Amino acid sequence: MSERNLVVLSAGLSWPSSTRLLADQLAAAAVRALAEPPRIEEFAVGDYATDVANTLATGVPGGELRTVLDQLAAADGVIAVTPLLQSSPGGLFKWFFDAVDTDAVAGKPVLIGAIDGAPRHARALERGIRPMFSDLGAEVVPTAVYVASEDRGCAGESSAPADLVERAVGEFAALIDRRPSTCEARRHRRTRPPGVHARRGGRVLPAAAGSR
Prior knowledge:
Elements: E1 5-10, H1 18-33, E2 39-44, H2 49-58, H3 65-74, E3 77-85, E4 88-89, H4 91-98, E5 109-115, H5 123-135, E6 139-140, E7 145-147, H6 162-177, H7 182-190, E8 196-200, E9 203-206
Helix pairs in contact: 1-6, 2-4
């Protein structure tokens, strides 16, 4: 089995960041839950704010953001965590995914998480973040992870309830383990016999004359 690639994105702007700590907690749990240890790439979205703004202005990803987007396209699963601002996902988090290629997360398992001060804002995960990833074609894990102020330690560190993390990560790992790795899928596409197109309804379709 090819090594799995996970991308972990956190959109916190402070340091130390409770958003990043929640992302780390979910990533560590995913390593334990997956059948094979994955390769993990972690990115703090705030580090690419200027590149995100330039991409939205020009329509052309550039700078270090291009590397992040390439890693996202090659990922087998994504963990995405954002702070909530006035019960909505952080603006930078939303702008980052506005800059992402439209098919970058299509069909991929995505585990979502959020940090906020009030338990009543947990609904924002379902109202704002889940629909955003669904629109991108992602397979969003049924259980989302939300951390309110009373879930944090004395130093403000994130500590999501263990049973919630276990359930969410278990669902995430099951989705990843049952699908071919992105690397294997790409290799399969490259090795398709000449003159043969993708399967439709279980049949191999011959390429049309003159098709490219």
